[in-house]
Design goal:
By secondary structure, the protein is mainly α. Helices cover about 70% and strands about 0% of the residues. Helix 20 runs antiparallel to helix 21.
Length: about 475
């Protein structure tokens, strides 16, 4: 009996050592696999690591799968990871919340795959995996990206059910979600008002919602409430506030915002300086806008384009051309928006030759002209009185002219022999936009100017029959 007990104790020790050794080998294998992800810089390398995961039998290890998913997301290959994780034959019962969060985050960061983040969330809930407070910000961001208010409300309901409404980060994304969905501004404000705690991000999100909807007055008013609440704004808040000042053309408020930024020593990021440039240009202070640009330590293409657009808006065509050449000299490659601003500046200043030159030079930068570029050229030629040249230009366009181009041509054709041409263009406009009152008014005014009263009366009758009314003009000082 004593010998038997000794043998049993010896066998137990050997078994324990064997199991311990096996556990150590598994841990070592897992660590070695995880270390492979540190130097993964390409999709090919990721495929090789994937093969090693399968070879080592780690395809059901949540930690390895989470790292694999995170790396796939960094390489913009979240779809590849998802196809492996959620393959029909794969057992998903070992998948935890952290793994699902990683997949949802990867999809939420990808602009054209945000709907997949919502699908993964629904799959997660159906399989009995409970979301946590880190799940909802990404799901709500995805709902905002696709603009699905119905689904967003369902997710919000889940937030309330699980008791995460008090989490600051979750609350901020709920406000953002409602703000991105159509006709949900009241829901966004209600959530904002009911939040037990708010930080500068919360206020910035709500101010940004108002700005996105063009409600600049409400954005400024909310900023004033933010100051009363003694919450210090950050640079993102001030970007929205400065943009609101520009939309309202409130130069005094804009100057106050700039001095407030200086006084509170708010970081003047490139985005904030761009907003200041745009604001001063919209308010008519061209000199101040250029001064802000000159003071910038770093600039991007938006900085240059903002100045170009403002100079063109105020008729400083020659200065815009000089500025454009300076931009090229600084090594900044112009984009299609920069060319729109430049062509618009040439149009307002009557610089026909320069406008033609820069329009042709777009192809040197690999930028094919779009409808807005063609529209700028038609406007340039019509303003210079070159109506026949503009007509030939429109006929040579590889795309059908839009309503704006047609209206520009109609307004440029004032002589008696161009009435038939106006009628042709207006007929095309009416076919494209049968309920747009300006299409009828333009032709009616031309008939009145040429004293063709009978045709003017016919146009007015057509408007009455279709129930179209001319919007009354107004002037605001």
């Amino acid at each position: 009996m004593r010998l038997y007990a000794t043998q049993r104790r010896l066998f137990r020790n050997i078994t324990t050592q064997s199991l311990s050794s096996k556990s150590q080998r598994q841990r070592s294998t897992q660590l070695n696999c995880l270390s492979l992800f540190q130097n993964c810089k390409s999709l090919l390398h990721l495929h090789q690591i994937h093969a090693q995961i399968l070879k080592l039998g780690l395809q059901n290890n949540p930690l390895v799968l989470t790292k694999f998913t995170s790396t796939s997301s960094d390489l913009h290959a979240i779809d590849y990871a998802s196809s492996f994780l959620f393959h029909p034959g794969v057992d998903t019962h070992n998948y935890d919340t952290f793994l699902f969060n990683t997949v949802i985050r990867g999809y939420a960061k990808t602009s054209d795959l945000k709907h997949c983040a919502v699908n993964v969330y629904c799959f997660m809930v159906r399989n009995g995996v409970l979301p946590n407070k880190f799940t909802y910000p990404f799901v709500l961001k995805a709902c905002a990206g696709v603009g699905d208010l119905r689904l967003g409300k369902q997710v919000h309901g889940s937030v309330l059910k699980l008791g995460f409404e008090g989490d600051l980060h979750v609350g901020n994304t709920v406000v953002h979600m409602y703000g991105c969905c159509e006709d949900a501004i009241e829901d966004a404000r209600k959530v904002f008002d009911e939040m037990p705690e708010r930080n500068s991000v919360t206020w910035s999100v709500m101010i940004g919602v108002y700005m996105r909807l063009g409600l600049s007055v409400y954005a400024v008013e909310l900023f004033r409430q933010m100051q009363v609440a003694k919450v210090s704004p950050d640079e993102f808040t001030m970007v929205a506030v400065v943009s609101a000042c520009g939309d309202l053309s409130d130069i005094e408020l804009g100057k106050w915002a700039e001095s407030y930024i200086e006084r509170e020593q708010i970081h003047k990021s490139v985005e904030l300086c761009n907003s200041l440039i745009s604001m001063f240009m919209k308010c008519g202070d061209v000199e101040k806008a250029v001064s802000v640009f000159r003071s910038m330590k770093e600039r991007d293409i938006v900085s240059w384009t903002s100045v170009l657009s403002g100079l063109g808006m105020h008729g400083h065509g020659k200065e815009a051309v000089s500025f454009f050449e300076e931009m090229k000299g600084a090594g900044v490659t112009p984009d299609d928006t920069a060319f729109i601003s430049l062509l618009n500046a040439c149009s307002h200043a009557g610089l026909v030759d320069q406008g033609r030159f820069y329009f042709k030079s777009m192809m040197d930068y690999g930028i094919p002209p779009k409808m807005k570029h063609y529209g700028c050229m038609v406007d340039l030629l019509c303003r210079a009185g070159l109506v026949q040249v503009a007509l030939k230009f429109v006929e040579s366009m590889p795309i059908e002219p839009n309503s704006i181009i047609l209206r520009t041509l109609i307004n440029a054709c004032h002589s008696q022999d161009q009435v038939k041409l106006n009628e042709v263009f207006t007929e095309r406009l009416i076919n494209n936009e049968p309920m747009h009152e300006s299409n009828y008014v333009i032709l009616s005014n031309i008939y009145a100017k040429l004293s063709i009263w009978e045709n003017k009366y016919i146009i007015r009758q057509m408007m009455e029959q279709k129930g179209i009314k001319k919007n009354p003009g107004c002037t605001m000082v």
